[in-house]
Amino acid sequence: MHSDEHDQSRRKLIQGAAATLAAGMVLPAFAQSNRSENAPQSTPDPMRAPKTIYPQPPFDKQSQPWPGLARDMEPQPDHGETSYQGSNRLAGRKALITGGDSGIGRAAAIAFAREGADVAIGYLPDEEPDAQAVVELIRKAGRKAVALPGDIRDEAFCHELVKRAVEELGGLDILVNNAGRQNSEQSILDITTEQFDWTLKTNLYALFWITKAAVPHMPAGSSIINTSSVTSYDPPVNLLDYSMTKAGIANFSKGLAKQLIGKGIRVNAVAPGPFWTPLQVSGGQTMEKLKTFGSDTPLGRPGQPAEIAPLYVLLASTEASYVTGQVYGASGGNGNP
Description:
- By secondary structure, the chain is α/β, with parallel strands linked by helices.
- The chain has a single domain (91-330), classed as Rossmann fold (3-Layer(aba) Sandwich).
- 41% of the residues lie in helices and 11% in strands.
- The chain has helices at 3-38, 103-114, 128-140, 155-169, 193-214, 240-260, 278-284, 287-291, 309-316, and strands at 94-98, 118-123, 145-149, 174-177, 223-227, 266-272, 327-330.
- Strand 4 (174-177), helix 5 and strand 5 form a beta-alpha-beta unit.
- 44% of the residues are buried.
- GO terms for molecular function: oxidoreductase activity, acting on CH-OH group of donors.
- Belongs to the short-chain dehydrogenases/reductases (SDR) family.
């Protein structure tokens, strides 16, 4: 090659490399600009002492007829309505949450929607005001909301619940069995057969019926999350039948996880400690216990539903792909599970 041809080829090579380098610098900047415009914006919460960021006891005595409404509690629970910010961790997913009108189920529904999931919620007809508030929040997040009122003590309704969720969501890949019945009685002698049956049908039978109906619809990569309780490990004197069912839920979750992992479905449980939900004001606690609710934890207060929602998001997401058969606690420092 002649000298002038060599110089010309060398100049073209350098010019090409410079153009490539420039494009490499411009494209990431353009992509970053697009992300900043289209991606969910996230502003970190300021650091605060966990003991004092939410209301602490003593609380005012208050009572509601079963099943209770979050809107009528004082103080009102925080479900993440104004605080939870998503980042597309559940984009395109389809979730069914029982007890999704209030409490922990409501917090999970809000979080799932803001993480990109379409959400169906099951609830009792008496809880319609709370349920409609959740439906509105899901839709404001840009996701599909499906409201499914009914009594899960009825096996036929449990099958209908799953069927309608699958039809209206276009599938199902997250199931959260969260609805629960809790009634305070100081002695086994005070628990009637009707009360016992009510608790077991709501907390255990429905869990079995709904899960059995849902599994055939759930593809590999799906997640089932059951709500157990710290009472599984440390049952209080006034929640004998409730604690028994919550221990059963933890055991059921561990056993089912072994069955379903071959299908690619993960099963886990969350065991909350004292959380400020309608369960507590509609017969779940005595008025005296309600006044000091959560004070026996190291944090000195009850948890707010917004504080536990991230656990449900984690267990539903593919980030937890190696997590199955586990029970996650959030008990304010009491150490169980």
